[in-house]
């Protein structure tokens, strides 16, 4: 948010986004509010990602006169180890091949894109599979809480996250690779009620499910994030499972750092930030990957069927809730303001 605001890209977001400064853990039949805003001095902004993408496209294409070409196919990179790389693609309207000569190439084409395949053999991909799935749900229903809710339950993890005054995001832990059709309307709401039920909590506001898909939880990191004049950003370079909700923040950090480095290079020929791009970004990436794994063990230990993992999860949660030092450390990385984060 701070970075977007500094660049004049946050006007609509600031005008419409909800803000949160607390979350709630529901565990062992009790509610535990956690005021990370009070501890860190910062808050979260809740804004649907498609709206942010729309805002950024508008700022680039309409306000700045940028050139965006949608729907291109068969992308290939050329000369990335030279000072004049290029990109070629098939034009969707004419079927002709088009070539764009570049000073640098940003690979922002996601986990299934082509750019990271050009890093070559020197690149490594570190991967971690959690062995769990999340059933991701969008419900046409007003939020049932004023904050993010984490339900830690022997039947499986559950979560409640407001998306707008009319739409709520829910998650339910499920087997990896599960079929969303195994989760009809009544089963979904029955499990949400069971896993998020605690004394004193208002009942869930139910509604039509407008999205239902299974996410297999895994992380990966590509090292290095660059080769020659090719620089990967976002999911092309790393994936942080939604467990810690850091994916979009990491992608924005990459993009804004890379943008500043390109301005310096194209404006004055200074390529020091471009040369150090991967080394500058990876510490933050690994910080969030570690937090994702740590938080996963806290959220899923109770439902693991392993008494040891369940005990460790309980110990971690009690420490966060009872130790001011542990609470401050958790708040710092949860809100993303810690050194190196």
Describe, in short, the structure shown:
This is 4-hydroxybenzoate 3-monooxygenase. With about 350 residues, this protein is α+β, with helices and mostly antiparallel strands.
Sum up the structure in keywords:
341 residues, alpha+beta, eight-stranded mixed β-sheet, three-stranded antiparallel β-sheet, oxidoreductase, FAD-bd, FAD/NAD-bd_sf, PheA/TfdB_FAD_monoxygenase, 4-hydroxybenzoate 3-monooxygenase
Polypeptide structure, described:
This protein is an alpha+beta fold. It is built from 10 helices and 16 strands. The protein has helices at 2-6, 11-16, 36-40, 49-63, 185-196, 247-268, 272-275, 277-300, 307-322, 324-335, and strands at 18-20, 23-27, 30-34, 44-46, 73-78, 86-90, 97-101, 105-107, 124-140, 148-152, 158-162, 168-174, 208-223, 226-227, 230-232, 238-239. The strands form 4 sheets. An 8-stranded mixed beta sheet has the order 3-2-10-11-12-9-13-16. The chain has a 3-stranded antiparallel beta sheet with strand order 5-6-7, with no helix packed on it. Strand 2 (23-27) and strand 3 form a beta hairpin. Helix 6 packs antiparallel against helix 8 and helix 8 (277-300) crosses helix 9 (307-322). The radius of gyration is 22 Å and the shape is globular. The mean pLDDT is 94.
